[in-house]
């Protein structure tokens, strides 16, 4: 990743990129967070289940969501569908460690 390029883009944009990381496994959230924080241009917020994620999207202003599929409370598929109703243009990337 070209860190300088990302920082230049963000400086031109006038604000940091805000990413919401959704996963029920703390270790996975930490890996994503560490990756996002390679530059100081990404603000990271985290949610541990779908319900928490939907609540955060309703009240926050994110540029990107990364979504796990298998989680307690509300699974990823339902959360993505609710998020798309609240913020139709918010990009959601589904990332899962589960093969099934
Ligand atoms: Mg999971």
Write a structural description:
The protein has 100 residues and is an alpha/beta fold. It has one domain (3-94): Response regulator (Rossmann fold, 3-Layer(aba) Sandwich). The chain is built from 4 helices and 4 strands. It has helices at 3-13, 26-36, 50-59, 76-86; strands at residues 17-22, 42-47, 64-67, 92-94. A 4-stranded parallel beta sheet has the order 2-1-3-4, sandwiched between helices. β1 (17-22), α2 (26-36) and β2 (42-47) form a beta-alpha-beta unit. α3 packs parallel to α4 (76-86). The chain is globular and about 40 Å long. Magnesium ion (MG) binds next to loops. Magnesium ion binds next to loops.
Kindly, what is the distance between the CA atoms of the first and last residues, rounded to a whole number of angstroms? 30 Å
Secondary-structure-derived class: alpha/beta
The poorly predicted ranges are none
CATH H-level homologous superfamily name: Response regulator
Output the helix-strand order.
Answer: HEHEHEHE
Strand arrangement in the largest pleated sheet: 2-1-3-4
Alpha plus pi helix count:
4
Nearest-integer average pLDDT: 91
What is this entry, summarized?
This protein is an alpha/beta fold and 100 residues long.
Helix-strand blueprint:
Layout: H1 3-13, E1 17-22, H2 26-36, E2 42-47, H3 50-59, E3 64-67, H4 76-86, E4 92-94
Parallel strand pairs: 1-2, 1-3, 3-4
The structure holds magnesium ion (MG).
Magnesium ion is lined by residues 23-25, 68, 70-71.
